[in-house]
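Dig into these lines:

——
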Amino acid sequence: MEVRPWARVLGDINVRLRRGAWYEVVRLTQEAAILQVDQRSLSIPRSTLEIATIRPQLWSVVPRPYDAVDIPIGWGSHYGVCPRCRGRAQLKGRVTELRCPHCEDVFPIRLK
């Protein structure tokens, strides 16, 4: 069975992906990664991605993007992205794990 890598956007750049969310890599080229996004393939420049050999099982802590959509102001300057369902959640205090309000799984939080 082939094991495919996973990728997520690096930094505050809009490439039509949820920042902090991991997507399965279908194919890698020198210039781009072809990602599986909502049952379609999307080509994203490799220079804008972090690539992992296995799907991480940690919440991503994401700085609030300049072009944030549907993220409550009350969440502050950072929020979490679930490693399983890509749902977003407010980060309160210095917790080490968090239950996703969307899929209800519990994962550790990636602390910087």
Q: What stands out?
A: The chain has a mean pLDDT of 92. The longest strand covers residues 23-28. Residues 83 and 94 are 19 Å apart (CA to CA). The beta strands are 6-9, 23-28, 32-37, 40-45, 49-52, 60-63, 78-81, 88-89, 97-99, 106-108.
